[in-house]
Amino acid sequence: MSKVNGEIKFMKHEILAVMLLAAMTMGVAQAAETNASADAGKAPKIEFDKTVYDFGTTSLVTSVTGTFTFHNAGDADLKVSKPAPSCGCTVAGVKPDVLKPGEKGELVFTVNLGAARGQLEKHINVPSNDPKTPNVNLAIKIAVQQVIEIQPAQVSVGNLRDGQTTNVTVQVRRTDGKKLTVTKTEVIGDFAKAHVEPGNNEQSSKVVVEVAPNGPPRRFGDQIRLFVDGAAQPAGTIFVMGRLVGEVTVSPEALYWGVQDPQRWPGSYPETMTTRRVSITSAPDVKSLEVTNITSSLKEVSLELLPGEKGKSYILVAKLAESPKESTRGTISFDTNIPTQPKIVLPVTVNVMRR
Predict the structure, then answer these.
(1) Three-state secondary-structure class, residue 32
(2) 157 with 168: CB under 8 angstroms?
(3) Which of 136, 271, 330, 353 sits at a 20 to 30 Å CA gap from 215?
(4) What is the model's pTM?
C-alpha cells in the first residue's frame, strides 16, 4: 500500500512540474508577444529645424553653402537616404544617415550660381524610412545681384593664322555705385592674355585682351576670370573664342548625314539628301595649292574633286548614294603640297534613325 501511495505522490509531483513548466512557457510567450506588439508600434520621425533656407540678396559670389539641421523625433531608428537635388547645380549630403531616437543630423548643401542672376529657388528631396513623411522637400532661395557688368562678355576673334595677334578691349563696370578695383585676371587656356587699364570713372575699368594663337589648326576657347576688391571668388568671366587656321582652310570641318528612313533613301530630294560639298582654300600668300589622294574610309561615300580658282581652291563633292543599315562614323582625308599641312582629315558621321 505504501508503495502505491509513493507512486501516486511521485505522479502528483511530476504533473505539478509539467504544469509549472507550461505556465512559465506561456508567460514567456505572452511577454515576447507583448514586447513585439510594443516594438511594432514604434516608428522613426524626421523633423527639420526649417524647410526653407533663404540667403536673401547676395553678390560677387559664384556659390553659396548652407546647412539644414534635423533630428529623430520618433522612437525607432531613422534611416535617411541620399538627398536628391532638383538640378545639377546643387550638391547635398547628410551626416549621419542613421539616427537613434533623439539624435540630431545635418544636411549640408552647396549651390553653384555660375552666371545666374535674379531670384533663384532650388529644391532638395530628402527620403527616409519615416512612415508618415517618407519624403521631405527642402527649398533654397537666393536673390543674386550681379554688380559687375562686362561688355562684351563673349569675344570672338574669328580666324587667325599662326603667329598672328589681335587685341580686343572689354569694358567692365560696377553697377552698385561702389569703386571698381580689378585686383587680378586669371586666364584659363593657351592663347589669351589680359591686362587692366583705368576706365572713364571709379566705377569702370578696361580689360585689354590679347590673343596670339600658335600650333596646328584648330578651334579654341579661353576664359579670363576677373577678381575684384572684396571678393575671394571670380566676379565675372570673359569668354574668348576663335579659330586657328593654317595655310589651307576647309569648310565645313566635318560632314554629317541624317537618314530617317533607310528603306526609302534618298527620298524626294536626292541631291539635297545625298550630296555634301567641302570648300578647300589656300591662304593668299600660298603660291599654288595642290590636293591629291582623296580617300574615304566609308565604302558608302564616294568622292569627286572639282577645281576652283587655279592654284587657290578646290571643291570636294562627297555623296552618300546608298544608306548603311546602321549608324556609322568614318573619315575623309586628302594630301596637300603644303609642308605644315601635308594631310587633312575630316570626320564623317552617318546617323541612321529608326522609328
Answers:
(1) helix
(2) yes
(3) 330
(4) 0.60
